[in-house]
């Protein structure tokens, strides 16, 4: 959730953010109305409770007809208090619904517009000239890395087996991410992949993208689409000690996405699948440190892309393509030769205080007063990276030569056709 003080004092800023996202600015007015009703209801209930408390003291001192009258008044007042509390609770629910409907306020630098309105910040590396490039699935099948047919037989479409050297390639990639993250000061975590509704909701994933989340209704648990979710919940309802700087974690988990609304898109291979593995960076920090931490996450992602030696570009994602919790997001998109275009490999978001406010994650300022923390997340490695690795390092004979740094984690540097 955003800071309610900002909504009250500068509602036009929030309306402008909603417009930039392509979302309804009138949600701001609904929130302000709900806030006013809630505050009035709280005041009325408090006043009646205070009167009820004062009446109780009077009853103890009264006698005879006066006491009988006070008791009658007390009975009537109890009914009024009960009704006022009911109105307060209803107003609170309406307010909470209106509050949670508003996305994070975008950063001033975030480009307005939709999915195609991103700004390219830089290009790194130059795509190789590859005559008639094979796509990652053709390469993978000839190299014995991926079995889509049996994945579909066992689990349905958009599932797969990583086999033999394919499994070792992914493990090597993720191990490299884990080793580099640990060296960079991140604490490695293997979190749960099932979370409670309040944690999933707290991260903002049960809004516009709720249809993409798998839910186990009988247990009232959700399968995570990224370890950002359990890591965001890790310090919920806590007051952190950030006096020595940000807390940085790297979560390794399987991830699950229904890919609702993406039917017909990227159905070939492993670009868009229902299950994949990922190492995700997650940071808790003071709000004033969030922008620097965002750049730090981006720099780490760039160091990982350098280790797999693929050409890529960095984009500043437009407001309409941000998740509800992000104020600003950078994507790194790698060149995919078979598609003759760039495709997303990493994403890093500055969520400011949006998630931490929902999850009640705070820290103490220099005066010892609790303040809402900021959270950030970023992709450090994931299954989709195999697409860029295989296609960019393919050789004319159908083999793939791995970059040296990655090869040290896989135990081999060449993949040969079967």
Give a brief rundown of this model.
The protein has about 425 residues and is of the alpha+beta class. The protein has helices at about 5-10, 10-20, 25-60, 65-100, 135-145, 150-155, 165-185, 195-200, 230-235, 290-310, 355-360, 385-390, 405-410, and strands at about 120-125, 145, 160, 185-190, 195, 215, 220-225, 240, 245-255, 275-285, 310-315, 330-335, 340-350, 360-365, 370, 375-380, 400, 415.
Q: Please, how many helices?
A: 13
Distance between the termini: 53 Å
The first-level CATH class of the largest domain is given as: Alpha Beta
The CATH homology group name of the largest domain: Bira Bifunctional Protein, Domain 2
What is the averaged pLDDT score? 93
Binding site for ATP: 257-259, 273-276, 344-347
Subunit structure: Homodimer. The tRNA molecule binds across the dimer.
InterPro entries: aa-tRNA-synt_IIb, aa-tRNA-synth_II, aa-tRNA-synth_II/BPL/LPL, Ser-tRNA-ligase_type_1, Ser-tRNA-synth_1_N, SerRS_1_N_sf, SerRS_core, tRNA-bd_arm
Function: Catalyzes the attachment of serine to tRNA(Ser). Is also able to aminoacylate tRNA(Sec) with serine, to form the misacylated tRNA L-seryl-tRNA(Sec), which will be further converted into selenocysteinyl-tRNA(Sec).
């Amino acid at each position: 959730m955003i800071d309610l003080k900002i909504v009250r004092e500068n509602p036009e800023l929030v309306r402008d953010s909603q417009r930039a996202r392509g979302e309804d600015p009138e949600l701001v007015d609904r929130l302000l109305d709900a806030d006013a009703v809630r505050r009035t209801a709280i005041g009325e209930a408090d006043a009646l409770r205070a009167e009820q408390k004062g009446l109780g003291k009077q009853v103890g001192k009264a006698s005879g007809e006066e006491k009988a009258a006070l008791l009658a008044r007390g009975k009537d007042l109890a009914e009024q208090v009960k009704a006022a509390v009911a109105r307060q609770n209803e107003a609170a629910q309406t307010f909470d619904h209106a509050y949670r409907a508003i996305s994070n306020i975008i950063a001033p630098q975030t480009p307005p517009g939709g999915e195609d309105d991103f700004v390219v910040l830089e290009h790194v590396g130059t795509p190789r000239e590859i005559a008639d490039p094979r796509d990652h699935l053709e390469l993978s099948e000839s190299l014995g890395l991926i079995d889509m047919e049996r994945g579909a037989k066992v689990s349905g479409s958009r599932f797969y087996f990583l086999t033999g050297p394919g499994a070792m390639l992914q493990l090597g990639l993720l191990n490299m991410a884990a080793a580099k993250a640990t060296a960079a000061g991140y604490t490695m975590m293997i979190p749960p992949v099932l979370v409670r509704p309040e944690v999933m909701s707290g991260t903002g994933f049960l809004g516009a993208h709720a249809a993409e989340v798998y839910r186990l209704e009988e247990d009232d648990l959700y399968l995570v689409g990224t370890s950002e979710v359990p890591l965001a919940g890790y310090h919920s309802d806590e007051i952190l000690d950030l006096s020595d700087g940000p807390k940085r974690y790297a979560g390794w988990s399987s991830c699950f996405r229904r890919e609702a609304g993406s039917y017909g898109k990227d159905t070939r291979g492993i670009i868009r699948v229902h299950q994949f593995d990922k190492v995700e960076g997650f940071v808790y920090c003071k709000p004033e440190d969030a922008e620097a931490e965002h750049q730090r996450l981006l720099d780490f992602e760039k160091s990982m892309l350098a280790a797999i030696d693929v050409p890529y570009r960095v984009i500043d994602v437009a407001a309409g393509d941000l998740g509800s919790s992000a104020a600003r997001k950078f994507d790194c998109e790698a060149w995919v030769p078979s598609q003759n275009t760039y495709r997303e490999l990493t994403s890093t978001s500055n969520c400011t205080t949006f998630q931490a406010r929902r999850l009640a994650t705070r820290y103490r300022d220099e005066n010892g007063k609790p303040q809402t923390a900021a959270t950030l997340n970023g992709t450090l490695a994931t299954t989709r990276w195999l697409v860029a690795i295989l296609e960019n390092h393919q050789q004319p004979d159908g083999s793939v030569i791995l970059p040296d740094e990655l090869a040290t984690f896989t135990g081999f540097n060449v993949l040969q056709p079967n």
